[in-house]
Amino acid sequence: MRRPPLLVAALLLGGCSGEQSALDPAGVHSGAVLHLFGLFFWICLLAFALVIAFLAVAMLQARRVDAAQSERTEHDAIASRLLRGWIVFIIVGLLILTLGSYFTDRNLALAAPDTGQSNRVPIRIKLTGQQWWWQVEYEDPNASQQIRTANELHLPVGVPVHIRLESIDVIHSFWVPNLAGKQDMIPGRHNDIELLPTRAGHYRSQCAEFCGLQHAHMALDVVIEPMADWLKWRAQSIQPAKAPAGAEEKAGYAYFMEHQCSACHSITGTPAFGTVGPDLTHFASRPSIGAGTMPNTRGHLEAWIANPQGVKEGNHMPYLAVPPDKLHALGAYLRSLS
Amino acid sequence: MTPQKNALAVCARLLWLLGVATSSIAAAPQLPLAPVSAAPAEDGQWTMPAKNFASTRYSALDQIKASNVKSLGLAFTFSTGVARGQEAAPIVVGDTMYVVTPYPNYLYALDLKNGGQLKWKYAPKPVPAAQGVACCDHVNRGVFYDGGRLFMNTLDGQTIAVDAASGKEIWKAKLANINLGESITMAPLVVKGKVLVGVSGGEFGVRGWLAALDAATGRLAWKAYHTGPDKDVLIGKEFKPFYAMDKGRNLGVKSWPPDAWKIGGGTVWGWISYDPDLDLIYYGTGNPGPWNPEQRPGDNKWTDGIFARDPDTGSAHWFYHVIPHDLYDHDTVNELILLDIPVGGRMRKVMIRPERTGYLYVIDRASGQVLSADPFYENINAYKGVNLKTGRLVTVADKEPKMGKVVRDICPTAPGAKDWNPSAFSPRTGLIYIPHMNLCMDWQSTQVSYISGTPYIGANVRMKAGPGGYRGELTAWDVMRRRSAFKIKEDLPLFSGALATGGDLVFYGTLDGWFKAIDARTGKLLWRFKTGSGIIGQPVSYRGPDGRQYIAVLSGVGGWAGAIVSANLDPTDPTAAKGFVGAVPDLKQRTTPGGTLYVFALPGR
Amino acid sequence: MCSRFLAGSTMMAMLLLSACQREQRQSSGQPLAETAPASVQLPSVLIAGSRPAPTDPRGRLYEGNAYFLNEGQRLFEQFNCTGCHAHGGGDIGPPLMDDEWRYGGQMDQIVASIAYGRPNGMPSFADKLTEQQMWQIAAYVRSMSGNVPKDVASSRADELASTPSLTRTPRQPIRGEAGGGLQGVAP
Questions:
Q1: What are B506-509's contacts with CB under 8 Å, separation 24+?
Q2: How far apart are CA B496 and CA B555, in angstroms?
Q3: Is B287 noted as a catalytic residue in this protein?
Q4: What ipTM is given for this predicted complex?
Q5: Running DSSP on this structure, what letter comes out for residue C23?
Q6: Do C133 and A318 touch (CB under 8 A)?
Q7: Which residues of B are less than 8 Å from C86 in CB distance?
Q8: Considering only A118-122, A148-152, B56-60, B360-364, which range has the smallest mean pLDDT?
């Protein structure tokens, strides 16, 4: 890798911004978990402090081995009282932790119940993990209003989300630290997870189950926004892709449809119907390329198309040997798909 | 006894007898009848594959009957020169018989005055690459005779009008594009000077359509698609579906995910019937694409349903969605037998459809209302039945296909309890003779990309024999009593058509080449003949120039059921031929490829 | 003691090194631009003492590599090959797991079939697959008839397991093939 300093900086910055941090909850589920974490932390910290204190006292007291008999019995009495107190502390502490766990768990289970609350009809999403990207489908009782996108999750604040997790190849795991815990995606069965975002912002999800060579580069952009903005995004996403306008975009469109691209990718409103790779209908409005591997800019996009294996070795987009002029045209077309 | 008392006693007895007679006549249910306008009186010919517009496939000729059929023998044979699945019905007009073959779709005219000698041969020369987009062997289901011309379809999507006397081509119309996976295998139907042709390719993501060409010139009169906006589907002011689930605007777009209707299937490759009184054509549409149902949530209109249309304009009058959101590739393109039957005290104009799902539908052909849907196939476990109030087919959640999971023992299998091979109706017995299958399957859905010109399926299927171990069955269904009168079990799936005759006989063929005649009332096997190859064709009957009754059938195994033989597939892979090889891995040991016409008659002068 | 350790570690090293080739990939930074063979000789009569064309060396490279076979298996399903050829048993297209090859069963002949199509219905994938993907699929196709080394054949089918494992598929030599050559080759 040629960019370790950048990576380190990103990690440090990542830690600061809290875009992938379980300690910065933006949803009900992660909030509940953070409270529980806090409870555990402080009680265990107290226990740790007490243990260290006792240890220190014991080490200091140990020097005085020739204490008189009366002093020793006095110490024994103190020690046994302390011991009784310690046992009580342990019992009470464990009880608090157990009850805390239990009630948090119950709380999470009922955080967004699937009952007929008409003003909080949950958003239903089907998330399919593939090596090494995410297929996201927003379900709708009206089939023609379904949205299919990839590698990004747009959600409104305050509305419960039910995500059905599936996988078509190996076990992946969906984890948005700011919103909830981890849930595996196992081929051949489906799991469910609930989210209830409470704060707007951009967050990052990461695949949490080792799934192959590029497991580390399987991230998901999670965008939480106010309801009005989300509805705008939704209305825009239901639209088919924009037709290419300028000459360069048209050339890119022609290359896309005549060559390998349309066999793997789909763009609504065009003859491309592939499901091997991500849907690209509104590609230009996505924050990143390659499931969070690179930001979505002109340079990165063309670098990706020119040599996907150099960026994300082993991923299923092959080296295509695109001629340079067609590369610019393709890039122009894809950047017009907002 | 006094003479007066004697007379009285006799009178009383006579009256009693009269009462018994009349009451027994009143107790016997009235037999269904095909409408005369759609099923005209017998003329000894067979001018269209279904025999008539009502699709009865019944010949009133009765020279061959139960008492003499055992002496039925070969009159002549003719080798078509093509050893693939022979699904066509030989057509007989006057003294000539016309036979069309699978690709390369040769059309032969045989002189019946001269022992079946070849009169002329027409070779349309379809493009060889068309063989790559034919899902289920290179079959052709027959030609249609009208006004001195024969109308035929070719595998590469052309409709051709050929002069019946000389064999010269009159016009040729290119309708389908093989690069989109389109091909044509059905027999055309000519109604009021319009040639009706539908496209095949539901396994290739083809957007299905039915076209009408002017019979004189071959120019396109109208074309109705089966997915997409109402104006493409020719749904207008006259459209009045019976059920609420079929009412609404642009359902051909709304019941699909965005753009999926463009590659949605709904092809027409089966049978069309016509009612001259109501002036409506009736036909069913094929499966939605892909087979994997999770890639196309929604009801998927207008696939898997029955349309009634005006033949002049193509405008739809009603539609019944037989299978909303098809789960198992259950095309609904089977034959529709038009009958008039008494229902609830009054005569109803109905159509009878032995469906792929295993239910026998009786549908009012004026309104599209389902009057009954009784199972003629006993081992259905994928469906619970039809809700007659809403018209909706009820599926079983446990048997729904899932991506990545193998759902086992789904009955009936993908080709259905009964595939395209048509049944026959006898007005003398009131029974419908349904040749069908008893197969079940394991199914695994997979994600599939649409690449035009390649299959768009998304399912791994493996078929096997159904409960009981027998793979085929002939059911004689009593229309009035709504139950089967008798059933004949067969070892191999039945993929041939049936023929009913006035001599109270029913003819059908088995997949290993036996051509059989059974008693139409009891099902007893009366005669059989071993032909050279498995039979998947449609038997016909006609009166020859010498006045004798003849029975003709094409023998040549293939189609979806016989692909293992005709295409020489490998039985080690039970998912070959979309799973059918798993059902008949022994077929190569039972029969070999062939392509011969067999014509039988009683020994005569 | 020391000699035993030396012998043992040498053997281990040999075993490990011999496995290197099985998993070699060419995607680390340096992309491999493969091409489909410009022309191939189909199985034909060799007249007047002419000799068969030499086999393309790339065939061996792809056939002996487990990664390429695995990729070929994935692509075989994803590009709808199973729609016409099922899992080797055939359907619309001929079976691929037997010994009969209409257009040749050598690696380069299979790649040419995929790239250029064939007259009786095989489509041309020229612009829809990269050439390297075609070689990978061809290698997988060869494995369906047992014609690849057993240790590189894919041992696992991710779908409805209907055929015996490819590691146990008996070898079906191409009809007429004598020790790996084209028809009529004298060993």
A1: B506/B424, B506/B426, B506/B433, B506/B474, B506/B476, B507/B539, B507/B541, B507/B551, B507/B553, B508/B433, B508/B435, B508/B474, B508/B535, B508/B539, B509/B534, B509/B535, B509/B536, B509/B537, B509/B539, B509/B553, B509/B555
A2: 10
A3: yes
A4: 0.90
A5: G
A6: yes
A7: 569, 573, 575-578, 581
A8: A118-122
Cα–Cα distance between B305 and B355 in angstroms, integer? 11
pLDDT over 70 at C184, yes or no: no
- Establish, for the pair of chains A and C, how many residue pairs have beta carbons separated by less than 8 Å: 41
Residue A113 CA, chain-centre distance (Å), reads 22
Q: Which residue type, as a one-letter code, is found at position B1?
A: M
The CA-based dihedral angle spanning residues C134, C136, C140, C142, taken in that order and rounded to the nearest 10 degrees: 70
**Rounded distance between C-alpha atoms, residue A153 and residue A204, angstroms:** 10
Sheet holding B499-501, edge to edge: B58-59, B499-501, B505-509, B514-519, B525-530
Average pLDDT over residues B117-133: 97
What is the Cα–Cα distance from B91 to B308, expressed in whole angstroms? Answer: 26
Active site residue B203: yes
- Among A146, A166, A168, beta carbon nearest to B257: A146
Is B568 tagged catalytic?
A: no
Of A260, A262, A309, the CB nearest to C129: A260
**What is each CA distance from B390 to B5, B387, B400, B546, in whole angstroms?**
65, 6, 21, 55
Given this model, what pLDDT does residue C174 score? 87
Would the CB atoms of C120 and B455 count as touching at under 8 Å? no
Distance from CA of A321 to the nearest CA of C (A): 7
Q: Which two tokens stand for residue B310?
A: 């005006």
Would an 8 Å CB–CB cutoff place A259 in contact with chain B? no
| Chains A & B: contacts with CB separation below 8 Å | 59
Residue C185 has a pLDDT of 36
Whole-prediction pTM:
0.91
pLDDT tens-place string over residues A92-135 = 999 999 999 999 988 887 665 554 444 567 899 999 999 999 99
**Residues B561-585 pLDDT 10s:** 999 999 999 999 999 999 999 999 9
| Structure token digits, residue B439 | 């197969």
User: Of A169, A187, A319, which has the smallest distance from its Cβ to C130's Cβ?
Assistant: A319
For the stretch B266-283, pLDDT in tens is: 999 999 999 999 999 999
Q: How far is A35 from chain B (nearest CA, A)?
A: 38
pLDDT tens-digit series, residues A237-259: 999 999 999 999 999 999 999 99
pLDDT of residue B344: 80
Where does residue B201 fall: left (phi above 0), alpha (psi -120 to 50 degrees), or beta otherwise? left
Q: Nearest-CA residue of chain C relative to B441?
A: C160
